[in-house]
Amino acid sequence: MERELAAVYDELKQRFREGESSVFLSPESMSFLRERAREQAATKPTSPAPEKKPAASSAPASPKAAPSTPKPKEAVPEVPDAPEVTLSGDSRREQWENLRQRVGEDAWCRSQVKPGKKVVFGVGSLEADIFFCGEAPGADEEVQGEPFVGKAGQLLTKIIQAMGLDRDRVYIGNIMNYRPPMPGPVGNRPPDPTEMAYCLPYLRAQLAIVQPKVVVALGKTAVDGLLGRDPKRRMTRIRGQWHRFEEIPLLPTFHPSYLLRNNSLATKRQVWEDMLAVMEEVGLPVSDKQRGFFQKG
Ligand code: URA
Fold first, then answer.
1. Ligand 1 pocket check: which of 135, 160, 255 to mutate, most ligand atoms within 8 Å of Cβ?
2. Could you identify which of 92, 108, 129, 142 might form a hypothetical disulfide with 117, taking C-beta atoms 3.0 to 4.6 angstroms apart as the criterion?
3. Which ligand 1 atom is at minimum distance from the Cα of 135?
């Protein structure tokens, strides 16, 4: 449980650093968090009470006064070592199908999804020039078994269309192949480094199959997963600056869910400028109309 609360805390801290001063929490999420915080407080050893003189009477203490026995901590299963992945198959399609099957059958990934929910693998063109990489499946994605199909995904689809493309002409994957588990039905948490390390070979293998001209890393988790974790890294500073993942040019930009929370014209323009840079890098034509999107006045 502590892991989930710590992850929520980290996420809030990160958003604060990125300039957000408030977040919207649904009543369900609020009561879920309150309950978890209460449970955690109940399991924390309280500071020792000042020693009391034994009572003169030998009457049994009232049940209220009995020291509460701390609840045993939930055992968090340890993330196994990352799997070794080698591509098998004669064509890209065959390699991709084999990999998809392997990820779908991965015992650890399957153990992390709730009954009825799915492990999620990348989708799109295996000849794509642009590989969008997000963080992890959310609630909608683990139901449909496809990345970026919820609200953030719908926004990503619109961005792709504004670039003159559609989802079938790019590749869309995630650092994680499963939604990082939370004890309750609501809420997302960022994956921790061991979880990311576990899924990374599957992402690398998808990159090796597709061989895109550019990777667009959507949000800090994607950047950390691909370039290595750096606690000092700030999306506001590195977005729009070219990096490399192995030999592939990589451009960090804001995650679409950040845009949904923070949809000022200036932020939309920043993301759009990043997409214009991507279009230029892969040799896509840019019209005057496209160049002018989200400009003031
Ligand atoms: N956010 C992500 O990072 N990936 C998804 O697939 C959906 C939402």
1. 135
2. 142
3. 3
Task: Mark 18-51 as b/e (b = at least 16 C-beta within 10 Å).
Answer: eeeeeeeeeeeeeebbeebeeeeeeeeeeeeeee
DSSP state of 116: T
* Index of the ligand 1 atom closest to the CA of residue 147: 6
pTM of the predicted protein model: 0.80
Spatial distance between the Cα atoms of 189 and 208, rounded to a whole number of angstroms: 28
The encoded tokens of residue 106 equal 């991965």
For ligand 1, is residue 147 a contact (CB within 6 Å)? yes
Residues 25-67: tens digit of each pLDDT: 555 565 666 666 666 666 655 444 434 333 333 334 444 445 5
Ligand 1 contact via 134 beta carbon (within 6 Å) = yes
Write the Ramachandran bin of 228: left for phi over 0, alpha for psi from -120 to 50, otherwise beta: left
How far is CA 146 from each of CA 21, 162, 177, 286, 294, rounded to the nearest angstrom? 32, 21, 10, 29, 29
Domains, in order of start, for the chain: 92-291 (3.40.470.10)
